[in-house]
Amino acid sequence: MPMKDSIDACDNAHRACTEAAIHGMQQGGALAGWELIQLLLDAADITETATDFMLRSSRQHTSVCRVAAEIADRCADNCEKFAAADLRMKECAEACRRAATACRKLL
Q1: CATH class of the region 3-104
Q2: What torsion do the CA atoms of 55, 58, 62, 63 make, to the nearest 10 degrees?
Q3: Who contacts 88 (Cβ-Cβ below 8 Å, separation ≥6)?
Q4: Which of 18, 71, 96, 97 qualifies as a FRET site for 104, CA 20 to 30 Å off?
C-alpha cells in the first residue's frame, strides 16, 4: 500500500474521531462518557500525528504508525458498540479500522 493511502486513511480517521467526539458530547448519555470522548480525542490526535510524520517522510513514521494502529483499533472497538444505533459512531469505527490497517501495512 502506498504511503499516500495511509496518509488518506489517517486523515479520514482524524476527522471522523473529531466529529464523533463532538457528536457524542452533543448527544449526551453513553456517547458523552469521558472514557469514550477521551479515546476519540486520543485517536484523533495520534492519527493526525501519524499523518504529519508520513507527510514529511519522517524516519520515525513507523513508530508513530504502530501506536496509531493500536489506538485506532481500540477506538474502533469502542465505537462499534454504538454503531448499530448511531451512524456517526459507525463511520468512526470504519475510519479507525481503515487507518489501523493502513498503518500496519507500513510496519
Answers
A1: mainly alpha
A2: -120
A3: 19, 20, 23
A4: 18
